[in-house]
Specification:
Rossmann fold; YkvP/CgeB_Glyco_trans-like; 3-stranded parallel sheet; 11 strands; Spore protein YkvP/CgeB glycosyl transferase-like domain-containing protein; alpha/beta; 602 residues
């Protein structure tokens, strides 16, 4: 089925042709063909690299590698055009994600050498990088969990964990440092958990600094004896290395899995799981200045030994040589058009790139009509407010068995129908999905709320539970995953509790969402005051969100409810599983709440 019936402006498309490519493509075609020949048995030697938005040029030079750094402006940029100004084709191109200057490369498959992408914020940008990564021979990530998910889910043959780096700095003795704690990072109303973090540590002397950069930032950590670190989404962040470079002992979150391999626990850094453990570490460092300074010196030495720019350049070089010796399988032809179109669509929908709907439409129309492309086209039609365009696309989707059975396509087709004021089309999409999936009995959908709740479950079952890093406005956008469906449903019926319950369960799997979970669980607990299990979950969410006193109070209330119901032993076992070190149990005991031993009781 051809989805390229019309352009976004309503004009007939030209067979889905891609925009005319630049002349540098022809000049590089011969080099590309040479690259695609079977590789030699010995490892390839990289002698010169082209860096895009990278500061590692001096580090590569120190390794004997000629490096040219390009700094294109934000937007969509043709890689052959960038390379055209170089005196000769490079042996490797490394495109480093720039957090403030978003650049998307096109015509990557025409490059004459291996192309690497270094994802710096995949924990927040995985929703578009999972598509973009398909264009490259290899991908590096600052986050350990991104080695497999979601970047390598895109079918990449080669990924690597290459994280942030520190810098060489002189060590300032602790006797010359004026402050107990230091934290450099933005604190805004949109980051409630970080706000609670800063408010809690104010009693310990923390005065956050929000606007320091470069030498000014390093000076903040040079003048402090500990750096409590908070992460936006459970990621390895640059602050960990900035503090260690100054010999300021990091006290950081025990996530993501693998973070403890960067700095040795108890010797080079301290790790915490909630505010109780954070407080314990802060008290220890303040009460043991010699041990704190020894940890600072060890962290400082660890940066010099393992975490300098040259170490990251060496890792990138090894990845590039592996890709050159054994070429991967980056997307090419129609698959490359699909990967690029989906990348640009995701950025456009999230308003991360100032692209126009017509350009997005043309890109998607030129891509193979896969389920992901079909869903993106439906989103685009809904965004344009075109019922005619939507009707054509929805009809084309429902005519294909593979598409009408796909939860993602069916959900967008149904929910877009409601958004555009066409409930009959929405019900047809639902009926087609139910029929295609072979359900003998299906729930009746009376209104958009029912459809949102139904497809939230379908999308969650299809591993589309949420998209960290995106913002969702249910008044403007059609939901694309389970969390967005539930947010939209909650807006339609604020009194309904089912969206809160299911959304809280989804967010449990996504680090950094504790503030949102606190709100959802608080609302649920108001309606279920006797549910001690829910009360304990709320207590733990508060403690993970740096709300110590509310967390302890909720735990006390939950414990009292469990005892009143004769379930104190069950409460104790549940608490021990969630708090194996016994910190919360000790706090409750100090408040007069005596619990049975965790192993006692039925």
């Amino acid at each position: 089925m051809d989805f390229r019936h019309r352009t976004a402006t309503g004009q007939a498309s030209h067979g889905g042709r891609t925009p005319k490519r630049a002349k540098p493509l022809k000049r590089l075609a011969k080099a590309r063909r040479a690259r695609d020949k079977p590789p030699p048995a010995m490892a390839a030697r990289i002698r010169n690299v082209c860096l895009i938005h990278s500061s590692l040029g001096p580090a590569f030079a120190g390794l004997g590698i000629a490096a040219t750094n390009l700094d294109p402006p934000a937007g969509v940029v043709s890689l052959p055009q960038l390379l055209a100004g170089l005196p000769e084709p490079p042996d490797c191109v490394i495109h480093q994600e720039h957090l403030g200057k978003r650049v998307i490369l096109t015509d990557v498959e025409a490059a004459p050498c291996p192309i690497l992408f270094w994802a710096r914020d995949p924990h927040l940008n995985g929703f578009w990088q999972r598509h973009y990564a398909r264009l490259f021979d290899a991908v590096a990530s600052t986050q350990p969990q991104q080695q497999a998910v979601p970047l390598s889910e895109a079918g990449l043959p080669r990924t690597a964990w290459i994280t942030w780096n520190g810098t060489v700095r002189p060590f300032v003795p602790f006797a010359d440092r004026r402050h107990e704690l230091a934290f450099v990072g933005r604190i805004t109303p949109h980051r409630r958990r970080r706000t609670w973090f800063a408010e809690h540590l104010a009693a310990a002397g923390l005065v956050p600094c929000q606007d320091a950069h470069g030498p000014a930032l390093a000076a903040v950590y040079d003048d402090a004896r500990a750096c409590p670190n908070e992460c936006i989404a459970g990621e390895v962040n640059q602050r960990l290395f900035e503090a260690a470079s100054s010999g300021c002992p990091p006290v950081t979150e025990r996530q993501p899995p693998g973070v403890e391999t960067l700095f040795v626990p108890g010797r080079e850094a301290l790790y915490y799981g909630d505010v109780l453990e954070l407080d314990e570490h802060i008290r220890f460092l303040a009460g043991h200045p010699e041990a704190a300074e020894a940890m600072g010196r060890a962290a400082h030495a660890a940066v010099a030994d393992r975490h300098l720019p040259r170490h990251r350049a060496q890792a990138l070089l090894a990845l590039a040589e592996a890709a050159a010796a054994s070429p991967g399988r980056p997307a090419a032809g129609p698959q490359a058009r699909e990967a690029l179109a989906l990348t640009l669509f995701a950025l456009w929908r999230a308003e991360h790139l100032p692209l126009g709907a017509p350009e997005i439409w043309e890109r998607l129309s030129a891509a193979p009509p896969t389920p992901a492309v079909a869903a993106a086209l439906l989103h685009t039609a809904a965004g344009l407010g075109s019922r005619d365009l939507y009707a054509h696309l929805a009809g084309a989707c429902l005519a294909r068995p593979d598409l009408r059975a796909t939860p993602h396509v069916a959900a967008v087709a149904c929910l877009a129908g409601y958004r555009l004021g066409d409930p009959e089309a929405a019900r047809r999409a639902y009926a087609a999905f139910v029929g295609a999936t072979g359900k003998a009995r299906a729930a009746r959908l009376d209104d958009p709320f029912d459809a949102l709740v139904f497809f939230a479950a379908a999308l969650e079952g299809d591993n589309r539970d949420a998209a960290p890093g995106t913002t969702f406005d249910p008044k403007k956008l059609v939901p694309d995953n389970a969390a967005e469906c539930l947010i939209a449903a909650k807006l339609l019926r604020p009194e309904a509790l089912e969206p809160d319950r299911r959304l809280a369960a989804i967010l449990r799997r996504h680090p950094g969402s504790q503030a949102e979970r606190v709100g959802l669980l608080s609302n649920l607990s108001l309606h279920r005051p006797g549910d001690w299990s829910l009360g304990l979950e709320l207590a733990l969410a508060n403690l993970a969100a740096f709300r110590r006193e509310p967390g302890v109070e909720e735990a006390l209330v939950a414990a009292e409810a469990a005892m009143a119901q004769g379930q104190a032993a069950r409460f104790a076992r549940r608490l021990a599983a969630a708090d194996p070190a016994g910190r919360l149990a000790a706090v409750l005991a100090g408040r007069g709440m005596a619990l049975p031993a965790a192993q006692d009781g039925p």
